[in-house]
Amino acid sequence: MLDDISITRILSVFGLFILTALAEILGCYFPYLILKEGKTHWLWLPAIISLAVFVWLLTLHPAASGRIYAAYGGIYIFTALMWLRFIDQVTLTRWDIWGGTVVLLGAALIILQPQGLLK
Question: Alpha-carbon Rg of the chain, whole angstroms?
């Protein structure tokens, strides 16, 4: 089955999941800045836009919603760990790295299965 699927298709599906995760993280990060760190209230607008983009991006995934959410969960965790490292500037622990690897592999299994998201 995987022989029939191009690397471009695989990368585009994973890329769509990463964009979806970034939209959700931004949609939650802006309110965090407002409520936790006292930043300006104008950040509500980009938060709303980010969450709307997140919902729209979820509709672009080509499979049953439950399978999309299951695979997305793994990609989201991986993306959140990259956010932790590169935006929050927190060094990842070996537990973070192992956990991120496990969930990324789990998401890949769901995405790459014959009935998965690449058909």
Answer: 16
67 part of a folded domain: yes
Other C-beta atoms lying within 10 Å of the C-beta of residue 6: 9
Q: What is the dihedral of CA 16, 20, 21, 26, to 10 degrees?
A: 140
Please tell me the total count of domains within the chain.
Answer: 1
The pLDDT assigned to 61 comes to 85
Write out pLDDT tens, residues 21-71. 999 999 999 999 999 998 889 999 999 999 999 999 999 987 888 889 999
* DSSP codes joined into one string, 57-102: HHHTS-S-HHHHHHHHHHHHHHHHHHHHHHTS--PPPHHHHHHHHH
CA distance 23 to 83: 12
- Taking the C-alpha atoms of residue 50 and residue 27, their distance in angstroms, rounded to an integer, is 5
Q: Which domain holds residue 71?
A: 2-112
CB 54 within 8 A of CB 25: no
